[in-house]
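Ticket 4471: requesting a sanity check on a complex prediction with S-adenosyl-L-homocysteine. Repro inputs:
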Amino acid sequence: MNTPVSVPDSVSPATAARLRVVLVGTQHPGNIGAAARALKTMGLARLVLVAPEDYPAEEAYRRAAGADDLLGDAPVVATLAEAVADCHLVLGCTARSRRVQLEEHAPRQAAALAVGRASEGGEVALVFGRERTGLSNEELQLCHAAVHIPANPAYSSLNLAAAVQVLAYELRLALLEGAVPTPAEPRHPDEVPASHAHMEGFFGQLRDTLDAIDFHKGRTPDSAMRKLRRLFAKADLNEQEVRLLRGILADAQRMARLAGDRGTGSLS
Ligand code: SAH
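Returned structure tokens:
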């Protein structure tokens, strides 16, 4: 006789509520509806639309097939930066493997990471690109890591809503596994992970400082900035650490200004 397998059937609503799926520049409204349906079947409810090409549209509601509440609740914003400003972990789903200089995860690892971070109170985004061209390099740079579904390498691009379904299913499995959450240790307020907006502020200042100290020496800053973004993504900084680094940068900027003033004789 087979032993019945017990499948947990409840997830922590608070953790699930910290997971959002962001669709960037979606071209076919049907895919937006199908993505909403994919999320709702997996118990997820947060969809964010970045500059969809043709939306609102009837086709989206037709394909949502009863998940229209998710569509109705989905904010529409102009840029990916806006959609993830309050996030602590941003994962970019890409059909082309190894295209980007980002750490890359398979869906299962990515879901474990996402649910782990959300269960500690972090806001998490999974980002999906355009049907024709995926995510731009600039958009991928806003992501902490890439997610690639290890599909047939000779035909690796899934339909957008199908890719959302795969990731939503993995998120559900990870949520079900964590169904009995251990209460997280309360964090000291300074130890909260830095938000995406704070990290972007830091990267802007880092870029300016590197310019001010002539680090690039005429080369384009993009490649160095990509590597630095990757390095700091691995460091998983908290707000206090970002403040410390920004203090160092501010001093470096001040010293560079003084050195510049001396060079032009304005201190004499
Ligand atoms: N021609 C595009 C494919 C876009 S498919 C390209 O080459 O990038 C639309 C979106 O679905 C992608 O941006 C990605 O977010 C998701 N997607 C499709 N296939 C995927 C895969 N194998 N792994 C991860 N995401 C995938």
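Notes from triage: The domain at 189-264 is CATH 1.10.8.590 (Helicase, Ruva Protein; domain 3). Leaving this open until the requester confirms.
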